[in-house]
Amino acid sequence: MDVSSYSINLTIRTGGTSQADADNRLASLNVTLNDTTSAGVENLVLNYNVPSSEHSSYAIEVDALLPSTALLNLDLHSSNGGIYLTNINGTTVIAETRTAR
Fold first, then answer.
1. 80 closest CA partner among 100, 62, 50
2. Which residues of the chain are under the pLDDT cut of 70?
3. Mapped to the 3 state alphabet, what secondary structure does 61-86 carry?
4. DSSP class per residue in the chain
5. For residue 49, how many other CB atoms are within 10 A of its CB?
6. What is the CA radius of gyration of the chain?
7. What is the structure's pLDDT at 88?
């Protein structure tokens, strides 16, 4: 599927000692996606308000759809998760993932 501009879809999962506990965790989560452009470079930064001691209690999956004509130089960072790329047309990809402690 080709798109004319980018779109971002987030899937957020968490657990708890009960359904109510998991629902409360999700309700207290604040996620922001900041989009800025500087010198023709699009920057997207995802932030969330989870204490580092609770990072393993959440899973945040980010699916980004980009136009097929987009030329990308990617610099991706993740904590507690993998980075998976498909159908990329670009010259540079830097990907880093680490376990938060």
1. 100
2. 1-3, 80, 90-91, 99-101
3. EEEEECCCCCCEEEEEEEECCCCCCC
4. ---SS-EEEEEEEE--SSHHHHHHHHHH--EEEEEEEETTEEEEEEEE---GGGGGGEEEEEEEE--TT--EEEEEEEESS-----S--EEEEEEEEE---
5. 9
6. 16
7. 73
**68 in Cβ contact with 2 (< 8 Å):** yes
**Structure-token pair, residue 91:** 């010259």
* Strands 90-98, 72-79: pairing kind: parallel
Give the span between the Cα atoms of 79 and 89, in whole angstroms.
25
CA distances from 29 to 18, 38, 56, 62 (A): 17, 29, 14, 16
